[in-house]
Amino acid sequence: MLGLLKNPIVVTAEINMNLVALTAIGLISRLWGLSYPRAVVFDEVYYGQFVSLYMKRIFFVDDSGPPFGHMLLALGGYLGGFDGNFLWNRIGAEYSMNVPVWSLRLLPALAGALCVPLAYQILVELQFSHCAALGAALLILLENSLITQSRFMLLESILIFFILLAVLSYLKFYNLQRHSSFSGSWWFWLLLTGVACSCAVGVKYMGLFTYMLLLSIAGLHFWHMIGDQNLSNVSLMCHFLARGLALIVIPAAMYLSFFYVHLTLLYRSGPHDQIMTSAFQASLEGGLARITQGQPLEVAYGSQITLRNVLGKPMQCWLHSHTNTYPIRYENGRGSSHQQQVTCYPFKDVNNWWIVKDPGMQQLVVSNPPRPVRHGHIVQLVHGITTRYLNTHDVAAPLSPHSQEVSCYIDYNISMPAQNLWRVEIVNRESDADVWKTILSEVRFVHLNTSAVLKASGFLGASLPEWGYRQLEVVGEKLAKGYHQSMVWNVEEHRYGKSQEQKEREVELHSPTQMDISKNLSFMAKFTELQWKILTLKNEDTEHKYSSSALDWITMDTNIAYWFHPTSGAQIHLLGNVVTWASANIAALVYLCLSLWYLIRRRRKIYDIPEDAWQLWVSAGGICVGGWAVNYLPFFLMEKTLFLYHYLPALTFQILLIPIVLQHLGNHLCRSLLLKSMFSALIVAWFSSVYLVYRTFSPVTYGEPSLSVTELKDLRWKDSWNILIQKQ
């Protein structure tokens, strides 16, 4: 033991000074003056609202994607002590002193800074020279658009960071595959690949494109492993299970965990939960939970209920009636039954209350003990205030002539008998004996005489005219196939009726009930509903001043003015480095042309480059060209408002391709020493121009110093750019 003390304990470590220097410079470029401007910059007005809701624990739904990115932004606010009290209503609004601007912008800036060393390491793992890797990192460092996007409370830099981390992790894992399978480092990089992919998808669904690319590459590599006769069947199965665990199971589990944390944090009711089902709303603190707490669970004959349409978009609405009747004749000349109007009303109202009546009995109160309504039972629905019965018949609906009119029956003593029997069908039943439950049961009402289904058709068309108070149309759908949500209803408010006299019943309908029955949803039920809302909820896409098409991005024919100072004229724009963007396009074109040339020549058994160089060329293209394609081409299929920043993930992959193409040209096409010298000189001159353009556009990248009108006009290199010029 004492012998060990004779010699000093020595720890050695290898430090890549290139990585250290690139990380330091990246941090400086993204963190310098991060609190400037102390005003709301472009989409900070959008993401800031969600940060405030996180701070106040108020539930929200964002149809742009999963919650992980929002939670990271909220983490910055939490670390800075933000209380959520700021009105995010205007771009350019000055932040109050309680808003920790530096902290809110910190995580996107750190993510943007770390993309610089990640780019370096990716090229090293692709087996390219350190010089090429350094060039890739510097191009990312000096790309004005990436700098701008990473210095504010936005998500693109975080998305790009996780995308690059996933690519790097997979490359490290693949390179370890050859000589140290199932080692600790092998497992680390494989698992980190899955984690990074999950985080990328959790930030924005755009991350799914790179995830699919890496899964395809991993599948191709495994396919090649199957042909390796040196691997036993057991070994292949272990490799397959390891990849399945790390690249599918763990990402799926992490994705669920993002929603679990999201739903755990946001337990209070707010304006966004109006689009959720009644069961979801009732699970939140406040709001509907205060109304529905303690309601009877089982709907019985005599129950007083409100019926909410499950579809809930473009607005929530409840089955409603009032004393007004349908006009005898509509404007188009068609006639009506002149019965009492039935509509779907988007506000809570006493006229939304209905009584569930047993057709074989006259009483409108709940018996003791209550007789529950089950799936398949026949009921009548009596309007609580007017005591008229819900009815439909073979008369065309006012706005949907191919559907039946729904009304509350008035006996005019003519040959139009009442048809007011409805069969209750519980859509989400577990068995045919299920009881109709408050909030939890989703039901259809099938008309016994005509088999028409009660449907809120106003969601699909216009609202009723003035005679219907612009409320939504309700019809009997005669050819009802499947369970469209507009045909499905759930009981939201519920009480057991006790008053047989109408005057007493009207008083009862205005008073709340208090009974103690819990209706908590499971996490998976809430996750499924929230995920479906995110995927299907569509905000109205409107033309934005700075929206653009995907074709505009390649040549950067568009820009976005992020911020403008009203007095000094200082401004921030999302504008890229023109030389880098043009070079990236040329590099992609050269890569595709050279690849096609090599393929044709190889088909003729002519090998222009060594086999290892060819494999390197193909693998690099699979990552860089593939990454550009999967992150760019899908936008041509998307029906949404697009902006220049959507191109940044694709651009990042394209930038990585530039030094790959340059090294390939220098190694294999510049044969003589003179050509190599000239090529090196051209690269130096080209890179100097990249730096010069970066410096030229820095004032509109960082927002300072403010420029004169003449200087701003000089920056308008393209007529399509919208550089803001202050009027003198």
From TrEMBL:
First-level EC class: transferase
Claim: Metal-binding is one of the keywords in the record: no
A cellular component term, taken from the record's GO annotations: endoplasmic reticulum membrane
Gene3D superfamilies linked: 2.80.10.50
The reaction(s) this protein catalyses: a di-trans,poly-cis-dolichyl beta-D-mannosyl phosphate + L-threonyl-[protein] = 3-O-(alpha-D-mannosyl)-L-threonyl-[protein] + a di-trans,poly-cis-dolichyl phosphate + H(+); a di-trans,poly-cis-dolichyl beta-D-mannosyl phosphate + L-seryl-[protein] = 3-O-(alpha-D-mannosyl)-L-seryl-[protein] + a di-trans,poly-cis-dolichyl phosphate + H(+)
Primary location recorded for the protein, binned into one broad class: endoplasmic reticulum
UniProt keyword annotations, A-Z: Endoplasmic reticulum, Glycosyltransferase, Membrane, Repeat, Transferase, Transmembrane, Transmembrane helix
Protein name: Protein O-mannosyl-transferase 1
Protein's organism: Nycticryphes semicollaris
Name of the gene this protein is made from: Pomt1
